[in-house]
Amino acid sequence: MDYEPQKTVEHPNRGTSSRFSVTKFFNENLEDDAVKKEDTAEVTRSEQNSENDMSPEFEDFFEQIATDHVSEKVDQDQFPEDTDEERALESDPENTDDHFIDETYYDETSDLNQNQDIEQTVEENIENDEAASAAFDRFKSQNEALSYEYKEEKKKVKRESIYLPILKKMWFPLGLSLIVFLISAYFILPVSKIGKFTVSGNVSETSAQIATASGLKTGDTIYSIYKQQATINKKIESQFSRVANAKLIFHFPNRIEVMVTEHKNSVALQQGKVTYLVLDNGYVVKSAAATADQIKNLPLLVDFTDEEAKTFVKAFETLTPSMQNLIKKVTKTPTSATKDFIALQLSDGNQVRVALSQMAVKLPYYPSIAKQIKAPQVVDMEAGIYAKSLSDYQADLSKQASAKSASISKAEAATNSSASSNSTSSSSTSSTVTSSSN
Questions:
Q1: Predicted confidence (pLDDT) per residue in 2-38, tens digit
Q2: What whole-number distance in Å separates Cα of residue 370 and Cα of residue 344?
Q3: What is the reported pTM?
Q4: Cβ(269)–Cβ(278) under 8 Å?
């Protein structure tokens, strides 16, 4: 039988060799196992990536871990280098025959030691595989959590990218349609009709009186009331002399409030034995006589007409509150030069005399004058402004009254004398006419 040579095997470190050894046998098998495991790891990673949809960063990270693990395993599976004798035999030129097998080189003891080393290496590889598997499981669990978050973010971005452009294009017609729908629903529902009516700010007039004056009814719609609110306000103001201002206020959904502002009491007017209230707009309330409590802190006008009281209130409301509080009583003191001359008795003991038509202009100067005089004084503002003691001023008034009465007496005497002379002349004329006729 012819000898069949062994298949040439390429050694990773020493090139091609036809020698058969246990080392070659196990090296070849381990390399094949490593390649298979590497292929299996790549397939497993690709399947996990497709299932978990990992981000590109995690794919590169786990691929690097698998590559390093396989490289480390292949390095650990390499057996110790050949002995010096083996290298010597391989380098011997006479030993280059590929078909020659050196029976003396084959040592059972050496192979047994190598087998033990292989078993130990395999056990270490198994332990390393278990540690790597546990580490991989930890990374896998972490990656699953991160992959879930990544998927959610991706879905969110996808939803935004789909619906946002549509909403940007459709927001105006959608918003307009929604507004039209809400307005239509509001007018159809009962909520569009008046549900509650309230009045605030009223003191003299009752809420029922104001509600009646407004003309509002339960079935009226809020929209119709809103269109006529100016007319309703004026209607309430015209029917009540004390109402200075009326304003409709709308509260969602269907409550209406009338906020009323009334005129305040300004002064009291005494005409004869009856006293009336005069409002801050000059209106004299003659529907009922004023009570003592109502006029307690108000200035009292004595024997003023309604028109004169209105003129006084118009000027009075322009004064400062401190000046208003000083005035207690007002009487008419006309002179020959000033028919509307009035005297204001003040709470500080002084008296101011001024023309009613000049009251708003001259009376604001009184506070500065009051600091320079000692009460009781009379401050006369008829022609210029001067102050006299009350006794001196009364003496002057008496002298003026005496002079006035004397001048009146002289005028009456002159009138009587002229009348008597006229009668004498008329008598002589008549006698002359009678004699001539005879």
A1: 444 444 545 454 444 444 444 444 455 555 665 556 6
A2: 14
A3: 0.54
A4: yes
